[in-house]
Write a structure and sequence with these properties.
This protein is mainly β. Helix content is 6%, strand content 41%. The chain contains one helix and twelve strands, in the order αββββββββββββ. Strand 6 and strand 7 form a beta hairpin. The termini are far apart.
Length: 196
């Protein structure tokens, strides 16, 4: 009795790539017949009470009001990660989404952005390496998200969330990997005044 979990994540994208590459035979599955509740995420330790060393981290940013700020997203990789998905949650009154680019460690990856909810302060990202490949162990820059700061001076939170894309990290066999997600802030400064 194989059935889906009712949630589309990066694991499903990796599995589709495995099917396309002929690595796995096509399998008939069905979805759940009841509503799907949000699933718990790693909070720093796994089921065996061990520390989770794999971390997706949103970098802190500093900007001058009216100018761009780019926030790198890094993966503290163990060397078996093929793809990851997450959403970036921000206050649209503070930051205006401009775009996203692959990070320095993801040049061979495919990056998909769901920008349908940027007016509500949400952008979803899916990023995966070619089928069968993995990120090298260590800190890897996987994406760069760019905004324009449009608020008064202050410190504003930016978070990794689950809408429209669920947080998940997958290995090349489409298995979910325990991961800790770290949020951060953007510090907005006022434009300096020139006195003559």
């Amino acid at each position: 009795d194989e059935a889906g979990d009712g949630v589309l994540t990066v694991r499903d994208w990796v599995q589709a790539g495995r099917y396309a590459a002929g690595l796995d035979p096509l399998t008939v599955i069905g979805g759940p017949t009841a509503p799907v509740l949000p699933r718990p995420l790693a909070t720093g330790s796994n089921a065996h009470n061990e520390e989770v060393p794999r971390v997706v981290r949103l970098a802190k940013g500093e900007a001058v009001s009216g100018l761009v700020v780019t926030l790198p997203v890094t993966l503290q990789a163990l060397g078996n990660e093929n793809g990851l998905g997450f959403s970036v949650d921000f206050d649209p009154a503070v930051l205006r989404y401009v775009g996203v680019a692959k990070g320095s460690a993801a040049s061979s990856a495919t990056l998909n952005a769901n920008t349908l909810q940027t007016a509500s302060g949400k952008v979803g990202l899916l990023l995966a390496l070619p089928t069968g490949n993995s990120f090298v162990a260590g800190t890897q820059e996987v994406a760069r998200v760019t905004f324009v700061a449009q608020a008064a001076a202050g410190t504003y939170p930016v978070a990794l969330g689950d809408q429209p894309v669920w947080r998940a990290v997958s290995d090349s066999a489409a298995q979910e990997l325990s991961t800790l997600y770290v949020n951060n802030d953007v510090v907005v400064h006022t434009s300096p005044a020139l006195a003559i």
